[in-house]
């Protein structure tokens, strides 16, 4: 009896092994290219790029159908009336029912934006002048990056929307529980921009986001607070997961690229380079202002870059990497 049981267990394991091997034979596992391989491909393609209006129209239609960015990008008085239940996209068992207090902080309309990522130093020198040229779709900056003098050559000083994760409020400004002055003073560099926060993604992020809203409005700042619509974030996540981006959560940059693809006639992404080496083969930091890496299993930014690079090669959007000088830029 003992021998028979062992044989049964062994045969079950053998069958499972055969099944798994057969699955990988029919559907081979996807291997993400190494940093070096990606650098070589980017260098090989060079500056070659040709706009593909068919691809642009296709992605605008796909994103409009699944995510409706024009209407759903932010929580507004129009799409989130009193009584609506907002289900957190990062915590599936929690929700927030819109009440008089939260309804009062929502904006009246959505806006149009352009995308700029907080890129690493040494990778995209001299883009500040180019970023300043955007007029209809001004730039977007991610994660409250500094715009101090030493960075102006690379990022300029013009922006329309700045994202802020609630965790930044907690870490840099002590959750705004003791003082608001440092936070309000820091935001002055962004002029009259929108501050975009995922207040309804994770339950612990709601209160810091609301405190940030009141800090801005009580200071009579020209800034406007926008809260990300969790339905938009959830649907965009599903959209890219179906296209090979497997992560607990997309980066802020890819959420904003998705917004731009769904709304703008032409999208250029500056500085989205989530690799440890630059085009010259030298080590680089994660952001242009620090080297703090995201959680290992939280984002899949190399996968995101591969998807954006596919869109670049097809002419659907343009990914700008390397140095940029006015005399070398034709458009």
Automatic annotation (TrEMBL):
GO cellular component: Golgi membrane
Keywords: Disulfide bond, Glycoprotein, Glycosyltransferase, Golgi apparatus, Lipid metabolism, Membrane, Signal-anchor, Sphingolipid metabolism, Transferase, Transmembrane, Transmembrane helix
Reaction catalysis annotation: a ganglioside GD3 (d18:1(4E)) + CMP-N-acetyl-beta-neuraminate = a ganglioside GT3 (d18:1(4E)) + CMP + H(+); a ganglioside GD3 + CMP-N-acetyl-beta-neuraminate = a ganglioside GT3 + CMP + H(+); a ganglioside GT1b (d18:1(4E)) + CMP-N-acetyl-beta-neuraminate = a ganglioside GQ1b (d18:1(4E)) + CMP + H(+); a ganglioside GM3 (d18:1(4E)) + CMP-N-acetyl-beta-neuraminate = a ganglioside GD3 (d18:1(4E)) + CMP + H(+)
Protein location: Golgi apparatus membrane
Example of a GO MF term: alpha-N-acetylneuraminate alpha-2,8-sialyltransferase activity
Protein's membrane topology: Single-pass type II membrane protein
GO biological process: N-glycan processing; oligosaccharide metabolic process; sphingolipid metabolic process
Origin superkingdom: Eukaryota
Membrane-spanning parts: 12-30
EC number, UniProt record: 2.4.3.8
InterPro entries: Glyco_trans_29, Glycosyltr_29_Sialyltrsf, GT29-like_sf, Sialyl_trans
Family per similarity comment: Belongs to the glycosyltransferase 29 family.
Protein name: Alpha-N-acetylneuraminide alpha-2,8-sialyltransferase
């Amino acid at each position: 009896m003992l021998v028979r049981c062992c044989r049964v267990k062994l045969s079950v394991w053998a069958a499972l092994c055969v099944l798994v091997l057969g699955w990988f034979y029919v559907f081979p596992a996807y291997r993400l290219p190494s940093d070096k391989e990606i650098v070589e491909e980017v260098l090989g393609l060079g500056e070659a790029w040709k706009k593909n209006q068919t691809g642009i129209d296709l992605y605008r239609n796909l994103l409009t159908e699944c995510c409706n960015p024009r209407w759903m990008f932010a929580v507004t008085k129009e799409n989130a009336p009193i009584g609506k239940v907002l289900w957190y996209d990062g915590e599936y068992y929690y929700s927030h029912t819109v009440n008089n207090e939260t309804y009062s902080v929502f904006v009246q309309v959505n806006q149009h934006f352009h995308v700029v990522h907080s890129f690493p130093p040494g990778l995209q020198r001299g883009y500040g002048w180019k970023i300043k040229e955007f007029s209809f779709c001004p730039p977007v900056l991610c994660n409250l990056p500094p715009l101090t003098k030493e960075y102006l050559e690379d990022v300029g000083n013009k922006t329309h929307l700045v994202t802020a994760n609630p965790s930044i409020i907690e870490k840099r400004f002590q959750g705004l529980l003791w003082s608001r002055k440092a936070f309000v003073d820091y935001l002055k560099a962004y002029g009259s921009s929108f501050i975009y926060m995922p207040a309804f993604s994770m339950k612990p992020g709601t209160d810091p986001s609301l405190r940030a809203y009141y800090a801005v409005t009580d200071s009579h700042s020209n800034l406007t607070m926008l809260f990300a619509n969790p339905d938009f974030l959830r649907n965009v996540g599903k959209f890219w997961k179906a296209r090979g981006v497997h992560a607990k959560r997309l980066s802020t940059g890819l959420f904003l690229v998705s917004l731009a693809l769904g709304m703008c006639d032409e999208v250029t992404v500056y500085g989205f380079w989530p690799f440890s080496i630059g085009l010259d083969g030298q080590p680089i930091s994660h952001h242009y202002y620090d080297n703090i890496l995201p959680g290992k299993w939280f984002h899949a930014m190399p996968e995101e870059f591969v998807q954006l690079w596919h869109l670049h090669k097809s002419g659907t959007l343009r990914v700008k990497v390397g140095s940029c000088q006015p005399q070398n830029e034709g458009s």
